[in-house]
Specification:
mainly beta
Protein backbone atom coordinates (compact mmCIF):
# COMPACT_ATOMS: atom_id res chain seq x y z
CA UNK A 1 0.00 0.00 0.00
CA UNK A 2 1.45 3.35 -0.96
CA UNK A 3 -0.09 6.73 -0.28
CA UNK A 4 0.77 9.82 -2.29
CA UNK A 5 2.15 12.57 -0.10
CA UNK A 6 3.35 16.00 -1.23
CA UNK A 7 6.03 17.55 0.99
CA UNK A 8 7.47 21.07 1.10
CA UNK A 9 10.66 22.20 2.86
CA UNK A 10 13.14 25.04 2.72
CA UNK A 11 16.68 24.33 1.58
CA UNK A 12 19.08 24.36 4.51
CA UNK A 13 16.48 23.77 7.24
CA UNK A 14 16.34 20.56 9.27
CA UNK A 15 13.68 18.37 7.63
CA UNK A 16 11.63 16.19 9.99
CA UNK A 17 8.90 13.83 8.84
CA UNK A 18 6.93 11.85 11.43
CA UNK A 19 5.54 8.67 9.90
CA UNK A 20 3.20 5.86 10.91
CA UNK A 21 3.78 2.84 8.67
CA UNK A 22 0.50 1.02 7.94
CA UNK A 23 -0.55 -2.25 6.36
CA UNK A 24 -3.20 -2.57 3.66
CA UNK A 25 -5.96 -2.58 6.29
CA UNK A 26 -4.73 0.64 7.89
CA UNK A 27 -3.20 -1.07 10.94
CA UNK A 28 0.27 -0.08 12.18
CA UNK A 29 3.08 -2.31 10.94
CA UNK A 30 5.22 -3.58 13.81
CA UNK A 31 8.73 -2.31 13.03
CA UNK A 32 10.38 -4.62 15.58
CA UNK A 33 13.14 -6.45 13.75
CA UNK A 34 12.53 -4.60 10.47
CA UNK A 35 15.34 -5.37 8.03
CA UNK A 36 15.24 -1.90 6.46
CA UNK A 37 13.41 1.40 6.70
CA UNK A 38 14.34 3.83 3.94
CA UNK A 39 13.34 7.24 2.57
CA UNK A 40 14.90 8.46 -0.66
CA UNK A 41 14.92 11.63 -2.74
CA UNK A 42 15.52 11.56 -6.49
CA UNK A 43 15.06 13.89 -9.45
CA UNK A 44 12.16 11.79 -10.77
CA UNK A 45 10.44 8.49 -10.05
CA UNK A 46 12.70 5.53 -10.93
CA UNK A 47 15.84 7.73 -10.94
CA UNK A 48 18.94 7.06 -8.84
CA UNK A 49 18.47 8.60 -5.37
CA UNK A 50 20.24 11.86 -4.60
CA UNK A 51 19.95 11.08 -0.90
CA UNK A 52 18.72 8.12 1.14
CA UNK A 53 17.84 8.27 4.83
CA UNK A 54 18.06 5.01 6.77
CA UNK A 55 18.16 3.71 10.32
CA UNK A 56 21.80 2.76 9.72
CA UNK A 57 22.88 6.33 8.82
CA UNK A 58 20.97 7.73 11.81
CA UNK A 59 18.42 9.71 9.81
CA UNK A 60 15.50 7.42 10.65
CA UNK A 61 14.64 6.69 14.27
CA UNK A 62 11.97 4.19 15.29
CA UNK A 63 10.02 5.96 18.04
CA UNK A 64 7.31 3.31 18.62
CA UNK A 65 8.08 -0.04 16.98
CA UNK A 66 4.78 -1.75 17.87
CA UNK A 67 2.84 1.34 16.73
CA UNK A 68 4.72 1.55 13.42
CA UNK A 69 6.02 5.05 14.17
CA UNK A 70 9.32 6.50 13.00
CA UNK A 71 10.84 9.93 12.50
CA UNK A 72 12.80 10.78 9.35
CA UNK A 73 15.30 13.55 10.11
CA UNK A 74 17.46 15.09 7.38
CA UNK A 75 19.85 17.77 8.66
CA UNK A 76 21.24 20.50 6.38
CA UNK A 77 24.60 18.70 6.21
CA UNK A 78 22.87 15.80 4.40
CA UNK A 79 21.25 18.00 1.75
CA UNK A 80 24.28 18.37 -0.51
CA UNK A 81 23.11 18.37 -4.12
CA UNK A 82 19.51 19.19 -3.19
CA UNK A 83 18.82 22.77 -4.21
CA UNK A 84 15.54 24.57 -4.76
CA UNK A 85 13.28 22.60 -7.08
CA UNK A 86 10.76 19.80 -7.22
CA UNK A 87 11.90 16.24 -6.54
CA UNK A 88 10.38 12.80 -6.07
CA UNK A 89 10.45 11.06 -2.67
CA UNK A 90 9.59 7.55 -1.56
CA UNK A 91 9.68 5.53 1.65
CA UNK A 92 9.68 1.78 1.96
CA UNK A 93 10.17 -0.81 4.63
CA UNK A 94 11.37 -4.39 4.59
CA UNK A 95 9.81 -6.17 7.55
CA UNK A 96 11.33 -8.93 9.65
CA UNK A 97 9.99 -11.60 7.26
CA UNK A 98 11.45 -9.87 4.18
CA UNK A 99 8.24 -8.36 2.81
CA UNK A 100 8.98 -5.06 1.02
CA UNK A 101 6.33 -2.33 1.10
CA UNK A 102 6.49 1.13 -0.45
CA UNK A 103 4.57 3.14 2.11
CA UNK A 104 4.38 6.62 0.64
CA UNK A 105 5.70 8.57 -2.32
CA UNK A 106 5.14 11.88 -4.04
CA UNK A 107 6.57 15.28 -4.80
CA UNK A 108 9.06 17.09 -2.59
CA UNK A 109 9.23 20.84 -3.20
CA UNK A 110 12.38 22.52 -1.89
CA UNK A 111 12.26 26.32 -1.72
CA UNK A 112 14.96 28.88 -1.12
CA UNK A 113 14.40 30.76 2.12
CA UNK A 114 14.35 34.54 1.90
CA UNK A 115 16.32 34.53 5.17
CA UNK A 116 19.32 32.61 3.82
Amino acid sequence: MSNEQALTFFAGEHWIISVTYLDGDGNPIDLTGALAIEWAISDTANAIPIHTATVANGEIAVVDAAGGRADISVPPASQSGIGPGVYYHESRITNATGVVSVQFHGSLAVSKSSLS
